[in-house]
Design brief:
This protein is an alpha/beta fold and 351 residues long. It has eight helices and 19 strands. It has three domains: 92 residues, Ubiquitin-like (UB roll) (Roll); 95 residues, Translation factors (Elongation Factor Tu (Ef-tu), domain 3), CATH 2.40.30; 128 residues, 3-Layer(aba) Sandwich (Rossmann fold). Strand 14, helix 5 and strand 15 form a beta-alpha-beta unit. The longest helix has 13 residues. 38% of the residues are buried.
Length: 351
Amino acid sequence: MFSLFKKSAPKEHRAEINGEAVQVFQKETILHAALRENIDFPHSCRVGGCASCKCRLVKGTVKELTDIGYILSDDELDQGYILACQSVPTSDVTVEVDLAAQKQRKKIPGRVVLQERLTHDITHLKLQLDQALIYKAGQYVDLSLDSLPGLARSYSFATPCQMDATLSFFVRKVPGGLFSTEVNDQNLLGHTVMVDGPAGEFWLRPSDAPMILVAGGSGLAPILAILKDALDGQSHRPVTLLFGARSQQDLYRLDDIRDLALKWSAAFRFIPVLSREDENSDWTGARGRVTDVIPALSLQGSEAYLCGPPGMIDAAEAKLIEGGVKRTNIYADRFTTTRDALDAGASALAV
C-alpha cells in the first residue's frame, strides 16, 4: 500500500532548437539545456535583462521565470518570442533562434590601462585590447578578469567604437558583487582581461525624431556612447537627457555632457535629477525621481532610450507611453544584477 505514496519520476521534456533535439530536465531552462548539450546558443546575462537569448517558440508551452514583457516588444510577443534563459518547458517545445549575432562575437584578451574613480561607488575601467573590437554604441560585452577566474559580468561600452582597440566601462559597486567590488576596491592596473562580445540590441535607430534619453547611475555609460557616436555622425536630432542620481556627489562626467551640448547642432537639454540630496544643500536643480520630470516634457513624435535599474525603466516607459510616445519607439537596457535574477527565478520555480 505504501507504493501509492511513491513520488513520480521528474518530468523531462524534449526541445528542438533549429532542428536539433536536446533533453530538458525538470526545472531547467531552454538556454541551460542548450549550453549543456554544446549548442552555441546566443546569450550573455542569463538573467533576463539583455534579450541576447531571444528566440521564437514555434510549438509547445513554457513557464516564464520573470515577466518578459518589459524586454520584448508587443510585436515580438505576438510572434511568440521568448527568452530562453527565463523559459522552462512545460511540454515538448520547438524553438527557432537567429545565430547570426553569435557568429559575430569575439573573445579578445587585453589589459587594464586606467582605473579612475568617478563617484564613491562607480569606477571608470579602461582596457587596451590586443586587437580592435567592432561594435555599435550602446552594446555591451561579457568582461572577465585574471584575478577572478571563471567569473564574467556584462558591462556596456562607455564610448563609441575605438579603432585604437581601447574600451571603457563604468562599473558600479553592487553590494555583495564579487566582480564590481574587485573593480572598485582593488588595484587592477596591468591585469589581464578578456572581453567576449559584442552583444545587445540597445543602439540608436536611424531617425530624425527628437530623442528622450533617461539614465540612472552607471546607466549613463551606453547613453554617453550613443550620444558621442551620434555627434560624430553629425546628428541634427533634438536631445533631452535626464540623468537620475542620489546626490550631487553621484553626478559624474558632467564635462563630457557639457561638451556634447556645446557641439550639438540641434537643441540639447540636460536635466540632472537628485533623489536624496540634502534639503539644506545649495542644489537648485530638479529633485525627486528622474521619471517625475517626464510628464512635463514635450513627448509627441519622440524616440526614447532608457538605461538603468529595471524599476526606473518600468516607470519611465509608463510615463512616456502616457505622454504619447509609441511603445515601439522606446528602447531600453535594464541593468539587472545576478542576485535580482536568482531571487526572481527561485520565486517563480517555487510556485
